[in-house]
Fold this sequence. Notes:
globular; mainly alpha; two-stranded antiparallel sheet; A middle domain of Talin 1; 349 residues; single chain
Amino acid sequence: MAVWLWVVVLIGAVWLADWGADHLADPLRKIRRQWGVTGTGGAALLAIVTASPEVAINTTSALRGVGGIGLGNMLGSNIVSFPLIFTIAYLASRRELTGNGGTTQRESDGESPIDGAETHSAHIQQRLLRLDRRSVTVLVLPYLGILGLLALLTIPEQWQGLQPIDGVIMLVAYGLYLTQAVYRGREEGESVEWSTKELGLAVAGVGALAVGAYFTVRATESLIAAFGISEVIGGLFITATMSTAPEVFKTWRVVKSGQVTAGTTSVVADNAVTVTIGFLPLALVTLPIQNMLLFSVNLAFVALMPAALALLIHFGSDDHGLKRWQVGVLDSLYLLYLIVMAFGVLQLL
């Protein structure tokens, strides 16, 4: 089949996987309301669903014997997602909050209705992307801890490669990550109602997710063969970019509705799922790391993005947020990554 047709298949498969994840998200949102989970903790809970396309892609690549695609997707999506999501969020937040969207944001950030609207107007004038200060301690710092554990399990010479025991350890690490995020600042829950249609769509979502993941991997395999590149490179720059694209559109919609923190910092929780639950299927097939330089450089940039974000949020503004130049820093880090890869790492392969 022609290359352009596989590109169409790839786009359609990613959209299908995203549709499936969307219809799994609504039931999980209701669970969050029942449990009284805060907006920041809810981002970690909902990430189980929103990151499910990446997990499904990794699982499919492991089952098909092309684990390099999953490995590249795991690393690449955790790098490109930060500059993409925060840039889109900044652009989407350049509007006044109105209606229910403004109320949602004010409730999320614990502000009074009047102060919330005034504060957001001030942030527009200051060109500030406002974020809940709890996102750093609840989501970003624990995520950095997970990445440190991942490096410890995969980089030392005696432990190189992805082993089944590594997958189990990372799964336990995510359990701890989710537990602390959900229970910190937990509030009183509320009653919700479940409909048969909603549950039926959730079941359909599971099927769509599986089919979309399968064809995403199949399309990437074909494009890799056509371009003559390795599985990991294909995963880094083809699969990872495509699997992140739906999150960009979601971020635009959610942030424009006024849910700035939830729509933006969910990317951190998504990435935590990708490197833990998404790590497990690759580890279960005992995936070797063919090029440690390629892996190490990418893992370093995976960690550099959230580390820079934490510093920018904590020290960059008294109001805990990102100004335009700070969003530009994240974009510059991705540009640096591309330069290092193009003129350094890839030249040595």
